[in-house]
Amino acid sequence: MKIIATYNIKGGVGKTANCVNLAYSCAKSGMNTLLWDLDSQGAASFYFNVKSEVRGGTKKLFKTKDIGELVKETNIEHLDLLPADFSYRHMDLYLDSGKKPKKQMNEFLGRFEKDYDVMFLGLSSQLFTGIGKRV
Ligand SMILES: Nc1ncnc2c1ncn2[C@@H]1O[C@H](COP(=O)(O)OP(=O)(O)OP(=O)(O)O)[C@@H](O)[C@H]1O
Ligand SMILES: [Mg+2]
To answer: Residues whose CB is under 5 A from ligand 2 (ion)?
Structure first.
């Protein structure tokens, strides 16, 4: 699984639009695609008419046993969404409060490996500590 992140420290430069369009193109070409909307404002989730909410927020997300519970189907074939949640605005603090933030994030991303060919991380202008070297 390839992991591609769209980010920039500047706001309003097309991060979300790029991410959504690239994910759409991959899905249209037949790749199993997952878009993780990592912006607490939930703009990418809004594009697909998916509610920006993860039950239990960031904390619960990383502890969820069945990742299927987290993923929502979109109306585009081969394109699934891991929605945004307002708690993501503190995700870097949450990860940093643990012992190995990069490891925790990498392990979480790795859980999607067998189901998807490509995963997009739609980031906000805030960079997350845990994105790590896999991306
Ligand atoms: N290639 C483009 N051509 C014209 N308009 C664009 C293009 N890409 C994005 N836009 C428009 O620019 C605005 C900002 O885009 P977008 O929301 O993707 O930026 P962003 O970097 O994700 O912003 P934010 O920092 O708020 O998350 C939107 O109205 C979007 O529709
Ligand atoms: Mg955006």
So the answer is: 15-16, 43
**Structural domain 2-131, CATH architecture:** 3-Layer(aba) Sandwich (3.40)
Q: Give pLDDT tens digits for 83-106.
A: 999 999 988 888 888 888 888 889
State the pairing for strand pair 118-122/33-37.
Answer: parallel
Count the Cβ atoms, other than its own, within 10 Å of residue 14: 11
The finding on whether 110 has its CB within 6 A of some atom of ligand 1 is no
Share of the chain above pLDDT 70, in %: 93
DSSP state for residue 75 in the 8-state scheme: S
Q: Where are the domains of the chain?
A: 2-131
